[in-house]
TrEMBL record:
Top-level taxonomy: Bacteria, Bacillati, Cyanobacteriota, Cyanophyceae, Pseudanabaenales
InterPro entries in alphabetical order: 5peptide_repeat, Pentapeptide-BTB/POZ_domain
Top-level taxonomic group: Bacteria
Gene3D superfamilies: E3 ubiquitin-protein ligase SopA
Pfam family, one: Pentapeptide
This protein's name: Pentapeptide repeat-containing protein
Organism per entry: Pseudanabaena frigida
Amino acid sequence: MKLTAFTTAIASAFTASIVTIGMTSSVQAQNAAHLQSLLEHRTCQRCELSGIQATGADLRESFLDVADLRKSALSGVILAFSTMYYADFRGADLSNSDLRNTFLINSDLIQANLSGTNARNSRWKYADLTEANLQNANLIDIELVYAKLNRANLSNASLRNASLYGADLTGANLKGADLYRADLTNANVTNVDLSQANLCRATMPDGTTSLQGCILK
């Protein structure tokens, strides 16, 4: 299968939802088949898709199981209502993507770009977001229980009603973050400056309730 013929066929089938789709010249036919399966059936099990370009692709309600998507260009992708087990998004560009109501378990998002992403009402269990960029992200009602957020950029992110129980936020940037009624019980906030975050009614690591940022009358 020639790469040009493959991408042309895919582009014609998904013109309405995909802005650009491509693969590096070193990708084998098997990997091309994996991409075709993801795009056509929205299912990807043990897929080798590192470095793909699927900017703006509509992949809502997809199922990704042990998928390798490292360093992929997925800006603006729609993955709402998708389920992802052990997905590898290390270094991937997921900026401004739609990740609402997604379920991730043990997924790797180290150094991923999630700036401007909408992940409202998602469940990301044991996600590794070390050094990830979550600036301006919509993380309202998200579950990040025991997530690794070491040195993550959460500046100006909305974490209202978010569950960060047991999360590791060591060195994270929370400047301007909205943590109204967030649950930080047992979270590690070592070297985290919370002075410029809204912590109104948030449950702090020691179990106390913060009034920082509340408008008291």
